[in-house]
Amino acid sequence: MLSRRWIFELGDWLAISLVQMLRAGLAWLVMSVPAAMAAPAVPEASSAAQAIYAAAPQRLLQIRTLVADAGRQTSIGSGFLVAADGLAITNYHVVSQAVLEPRTFRLEYAAADGSHGDVRVLAFDLANDLAIVQLDKDDAAFFSFDEVAMAGRLPQGERLYSMGNPLDLGFTISEGTYNGLVGHSYNERIHFTGALNPGMSGGPTVTGEGFVAGVNVATQRGGQLVSFLVPARFAATLLRRVRDHDTSPDLHAEIARQLATFTSGLYQSFADGGFRPTQVGSYRAPEPAAPWFDCWANTNVDETPKPRASINSTSCRSDTGLFVAADLTTGAIQLSHSYVRTSELNSFQFAAVLTRMSQPRLVGGGPFRKWYTPERCHEDFVGAANEPDHPSLRVIWCAEAYREFDSLYDIALIAVTQDHDREALISRLSLQAVGYDEAISLGRRFIEAVQVSR
Amino acid sequence: MIWVEILTRHREIAARFRIHGSEVYIGRGYDNDVIIDDPHVAAQHLRVFRDETGQLVAEDLGSLNGMFLDSGRSRQTRIVVDGGRPIRIGQTWLRFRETSHAVEPERVVPSERRSVAAVLAILLGLSIPAIECLEVWLTQTSEPRVSSYLSPLLLILAGMIGWVGFWTLLSRIFSGRLRFLSHLLIAMAGVLVFSLYDQVAQFLAFAWTFPAASTYQYVALWSILAVVCFLDLRLVGRARPWLKGILVLLLLAAAIAVQTLQLSEAVSDSGRQFTARRLLPPALRLVPLRDESAFFEDIEKLKLTLDADRVKAAASPVNGGRAP
Questions:
Q1: I need a surface site. Which of B23, B44, B109, B135 has the fewest CB within 10 A?
Q2: What is the pLDDT of residues B232-284, one digit of tens each?
């Protein structure tokens, strides 16, 4: 069941780092290469792939992040030239270390023809995981964007060719199919059925004519050939902004600004969608109305030994985790409701079950000491005596602030109904990188939507 | 007639001699009335005799190490004996008493109090496991298991045996009596008070929304332990109670300070408060329900704390933070 969930974890990003290389080790390299080679062996298309690949090498890049002092690479990704004066596109997550810690890391490119040199980050688009870098090249061959893809009119099933430097094995091309935009997703992504491997991040995926349709970005962990591309039009927009000098030179501040813009749009959209009531046991509980939530149910009735309190849960998670740094992915929203009832336990024992299930568990997007201030909590009994629909609640609110992003907080809100001693609803709302006032207004709506319906 | 008593360092009587004459010679040699096998005592060290006024007087007979009164440091050649304070020669303490020396009145054998103590011990001994089992039963959410009741009881029993054994041993060494029942009562009362406190703290944390009672439980634990230690120490020996009190208070302060430091460092490492937010049946709530608007006003105030934390974190980049 877990494999069907949309959990983007670090390993899904296609940049490759030393740790991943070590972890994947020989087993990965030796065993996966024949499988990867088998994929493009579709006879009729190989000539198209040959033609595309023949023109590609001078326009394809490998982007390396080096530890400045040691001069050795710590992670690698791909990229491609989009202008004759040396402008290239890659993923933000390929260059993030150098953006965040310019004194520790520096960037270098290596082209297929053996040339290499320094790389400077000019601009990035955090929400779409894109970055534009400047190479010390002029008069270079470059890729153009595909007009049909930019307009979103590619037919489903269209053959696309993805390029990059997987696992540092050398430049490769792999063939796959365009499967439209990913449904129920907050961010616009192309669903590409083809083999993307670590190290291909930031590489181009092109049409049969050799025009860029998207930028390689991630795969579905546990999926087979389920890969994602950033649509080319976002790359084109970012390129236009660089041309118009509409970018900020202070990259560090730009991360904070773009993150705040992204999450404020996200929470605005979440608030606009609002909650729709869903029946959970004898309560009505709020579920997100926005389509970009993935909801799953869970029950403990099939457990052995037979549980003495039955727990039926539904939980919804947004797919909006945004890569900010190698150790910080934030912006996810989570809601869950657990309906707990018992006929075997007494009210104290039942309260002990609820105690275990209602601990705050503020889930940060990264290590606490680097990104967050200490957790602060407040709890109380909340309710109005004269409203029969609204059960009295025990509410716990825990929050922590981001050290570097002013006005962003991680929030966990837990409400436990207090109207029965052997039946309860535990509702959780968890918001990452949210503005405090937005969180209060969402939390308030969430709590108000917890109602009794017997 | 003169009684000569040889005392230990702790002023307990090691030997007692009855001398029929009015004069006693004391030393290491065999020509004395009382022989003392102490290499720091002279062959003929001390003479005790009755002077003209009839008082008993001790006189140094020219020894190397001299004669001292009690723990005094000034050497004496002649001491008027009062039967109370001992005299030291070499490393031996001596006391001289006359037949007319007054003794304390006879005490009543405390037989009745002993039975009360035994009843009390039985009551405490039953209520501790009862409370413990109740606690286990009320938090039992899975299938009931006998071992989950027995293992905490066994733990308490083992701890109690060790603790009481230690103190009875001390009592035996320093006051000569085991005082087992009294030490047992003190230990059981301590355990009972703590488990009652534990229950009350959890109740307060829920019913009054007062989590501090539960968070600072260790302060209560150390305080109870300190009181128990003080009572045990007093039982071992009644001398210098203020010194024992100060010692126990210092240890208590040190223990609380160290644990507070340890907890605050753990909190700053993990960023999480170590507060178990325990829920109890809704009927136990004592505070009135808070109005939703008022609750969210409280939540809004929390923002000030968070922002202050952020400013503080920015000011100390050593704590994992980055310089801007």
A1: B109
A2: 999 998 888 899 999 999 999 999 999 999 998 988 888 888 777 889 999 99
Per-residue CA distances from A64 to A101, A408, B68, B295 (Å):
15, 31, 89, 51
Q: What are A272-323's pLDDT values in tens digits?
A: 999 999 999 999 999 999 999 999 999 998 888 889 999 999 999 998 999 9
Q: Which candidate from A376, A447, A448 shows the least CB-CB separation from B305?
A: A376
Gap between the Cα atoms of A354 and A425, Å rounded: 9
Three-state SS sequence of A133-169: EEECCCCCCCCCECHHHHCCCCCCCCEEEEEECHHHC
Taking 80 as the threshold, does the pLDDT of residue A18 lie above it? no
A323 has which bridge partners?
Answer: A329
- Share of chain B residues as helix, strand and coil, in percent rounded to the nearest 5: 50, 15, 35
Measured between CA atoms, how close is B214 to chain A, in angstroms?
Answer: 14
Whether residue A380 and residue B291 make contact (CB cut-off 8 A), yes or no, is no
Q: Do A359 and B140 touch (CB under 8 A)?
A: no
pTM: 0.81
Chain A: give the shortest CA distance to residue B313, in Å: 7
> Which 3 state secondary structure label does DSSP give B294?
helix
- Which of B268, B270, B306 to probe by mutation at the A interface, max A CB count within 10 Å? B306
- Kindly state whether B212 is in contact with chain A, defined as any CB-CB distance less than 8 angstroms: no
Chain A 225-244, residues with CB within 8 Å of chain B CB atoms: none
pLDDT along chain B (324 residues), means of 10: 88 89 92 93 93 90 91 89 89 90 84 80 94 92 89 94 96 88 94 93 91 88 96 88 94 96 89 84 92 94 94 70 42
SS3 A198: coil
Per cent of chain A over pLDDT 90 is 61
Residues of A in contact with B267 (CB under 8 A): 374
Closest CA to A158 of A200, A197, A194: A194
Burial of A395 (0-12, 13-18, 19+ CB in 10 A): buried
